[in-house]
Structures are given as C-alpha cells and as structure tokens.
Write a structure and sequence with these properties.
The protein is an alpha/beta fold and 216 residues long. 45% of the residues lie in helices and 13% in strands.
Length: 216
C-alpha cells in the first residue's frame, strides 16, 4: 500500500472520545441546575433521540446561519432526551441549562484523546502526509481541536454542517478532497463508523479504513 497524499480522519470515536458517557456528561451539567437523573437512562434516551433525528446538515441555510441551526438541532436532542427520562419539567430555565451544556461540549473537559492518536498523527506528519478532519461534527470542532492540542496537525477541517451533506454522502468527501487538490485515489479516510466512514469513503473512491474501537 503506497503512501497517500492526504489522510482524512473522523473526529469523535476516532481522534477523541467522550469521558465516561454522554449520559454522564449531561447529568454532570444538569446537577448544576439542581436536576438529578440516572446517567444510564439519559444515555439511552440521548442515543434514541440522536438516531431518530434528521442528519445534522443544513443545505438551504446561509453560512452565517449555520451555527444557530446547529444550536437548535442539539437543543431539540437535549429536550427530547430529558423529556424521555421524565425530568424536563424540573429545569427552572432549560434555555440557560442548554447554553451551559452546549458550551461544555465545546471545551476539552468532556473529551479524552485516544492513546494512539498523537503517535499516528506525528508519524504521518513526519512522513509529509497532509492531514484533514472529515466529520459529521458541528462547528464546535474548531474549539475542541484547539482545546485538545490537535489543531496544529490538520491542514483542513470539513464538517457536514458547513458542506450541507453528512457522511456517507459523497459530496462531503469531494469537498474535503478539493481543499487538498487531491484525487480520491490518493487519499485515505479513517473512521470508527463502518457505514459513514468505511463504506462512505470507499463509495467516494478513497481508501476507507475502519477503526473498530468497539470491537464490533
């Protein structure tokens, strides 16, 4: 296998993960607003709401409106999550809570960098391979990469909300390739989702590499 010109990497589940669980993080912030609930129930409700939601991509929005659309998308997920576990009405001001929660996930605190991440990035960088983030994350990815000291490794960041199409749509892969003036055959994409990352990249003509962290 020859050396690629560029390697794209997914973000959550590939470069970094959530400390504990999403449910634990949500409960941690909720407790600051005097709302207590079971983290495992919140985790289950979150993933149900996340799976049922429309893709986080806003093809008809003006670029300047995308951050607001992202905020509303996640606000709906959070409301559904706490409604499902029966504590939504316990928040005196859910808007204030959600603003805190949203900012929390833009910081380093809820995340951890996988042990293999830095070694891989440093090795590829030393070989002169260009690196890019290619993710269905929202625009908070920029602050998270900075907070986790990962931003310096990447020449590009391509996210679904800015492109208007999520992985596995070929448009997001084509957009990332254009940033590096690179053909699909000269690029790899590494990610933890078999459908979005491996199958999506392969269908778009890139070398797809499935990072099976969950041993599925």
């Amino acid at each position: 296998m020859g050396q690629p010109k560029v390697i794209f990497l997914d973000a959550v589940g590939t470069l970094f993960g959530v400390q504990g669980s999403v449910g634990e993080a949500y409960v941690r912030v909720a407790e600051q607003f005097s709302v207590a609930c079971d983290a495992s129930a919140v985790d289950q409700a979150f993933f149900a709401a996340f799976k049922a939601a429309a893709p986080m991509a806003f093809p008809d929005s003006e670029p300047t409106d995308v951050p607001h659309q992202e905020y509303l998308w996640w606000d709906a997920i959070a409301r559904q999550t706490f409604d499902q576990v029966g504590v939504l009405s316990q928040f005196a001001n859910f808007d204030d809570f959600f603003a805190k929660l949203y900012a929390y996930f833009a910081s380093a605190e809820p995340w951890f960098v996988y042990p293999d991440t830095l070694n891989s990035l440093e090795r590829w960088q030393a070989r002169g391979i260009e690196l890019g983030v290619l993710s269905n994350f929202d625009s908070r990815i920029y602050s998270v990469l900075e907070a986790l000291d990962l931003a310096e490794f990447f020449q590009s960041v391509t996210i679904s909300t800015e492109v208007g199409a999520p992985k596995p749509d070929p448009l997001i892969f084509a957009t990332a390739l254009q940033k590096h003036h690179c053909t699909a055959k000269d690029a790899w994409h590494v990610g933890d989702s078999y459908k979005e990352d491996y199958e999506g990249a392969t269908a778009a003509g890139l070398k797809g590499i499935w990072l099976n962290r969950q041993r599925r």
